[in-house]
Design goal:
The protein is of the alpha+beta class. It contains six helices and twelve strands. The strands form four sheets. The chain has a six-stranded antiparallel sheet, with helices on one face. The chain has a two-stranded antiparallel sheet with strand order 1-2.
């Protein structure tokens, strides 16, 4: 299929992040994610009939998730899927990537003091017009907590992206299953309630928040430490909070806030 160069740039960016995250972010997971999407949609519309996708069906779908089957011809500006049963899903990267593109376009137009917030993806361009850094609240995944913000950070020319299990989910037999799917288990992970990333690129932050949500803390810490100028905060279901080494530098009134 012939596509716009911007689509090819997005796909190349996504493939690079697949390798950087050791496959924890895979845009070729469309066949698996669509199964989950269909079962989640039905479960939300009629909770009494909510079911999990059969593991046999998930494993069959997972046979069609090889990212190497995305064939890009930059000269012809085409993308070819070598496996006819595979499909692409850029949900783990696309929104953050688009927010980054918007911010860069705004700077080209001369906007130097702004914040863009698109549902969990926030990016700052320069300081506030009064010269201060932007103060941004990180959503408390415990939606019944007295304070809806778990931490507040100060940012300039940085982005903040959060992945969590507290907004998009459905319930089967009293258990909540979120929309983020671990490529290794083909199931929603249950390590954390939320993971937030601060870094220079919103597309990268979007991918990293998904990757770290899918990984045990120790593995996620190793990954975030391998990426320059990227920091993370992990929030467990019991409210426990952990940080990467320099995340606290961004927090307002650390550690009591």
């Amino acid at each position: 299929v012939e596509v716009d160069k911007r689509i090819i740039d997005l796909l190349k960016f996504s493939i690079d992040l697949y390798h950087k995250t050791d496959g924890e972010v895979n845009i070729a997971m469309g066949s698996v994610l669509s199964l989950w999407h269909n079962y989640r949609t039905l479960g939300i519309s009629d909770p009494s009939t909510a079911e999990l996708p059969p593991m046999e069906s998930l494993k069959e779908a997972a046979k069609h998730t090889d990212i190497n089957n995305i064939i890009i011809d930059e000269e012809a500006s085409t993308v070819y899927l070598a496996d006819p049963d595979m499909s692409l899903d850029v949900g783990s990267i696309g929104k953050g990537y688009a927010v980054q593109m918007i911010a860069e376009y705004a700077k080209e137009l001369g906007y130097n003091n702004m914040i863009i917030n698109v549902g969990g993806n926030a990016i700052t361009v320069g300081p506030h017009v009064n010269g201060d850094k932007w103060r941004i609240g990180i959503q408390n995944p415990d939606l019944e907590a007295e304070d809806s913000v778990i931490k507040r950070v100060l940012l300039t020319d940085k982005c903040l992206v959060t992945s969590g299990d507290y907004q998009r989910y459905y319930v089967v037999d009293g258990v909540e299953y979120c929309h983020i799917i671990d490529p290794d288990t083909l199931m929603p992970p249950n390590y954390f309630s939320a993971v937030s990333i601060i870094c220079d690129n919103s597309g990268l932050a979007d991918a990293l928040s998904t990757a770290l949500f899918n990984m045990p803390y120790e593995d996620g810490l190793k990954l975030i430490n391998s990426i320059e100028d990227a920091e993370a905060i992990w929030v467990y279901e019991d409210g426990t909070v952990k940080y990467s080494e320099n995340f606290k530098d961004y927090i307002v009134e650390y550690p009591d806030n």
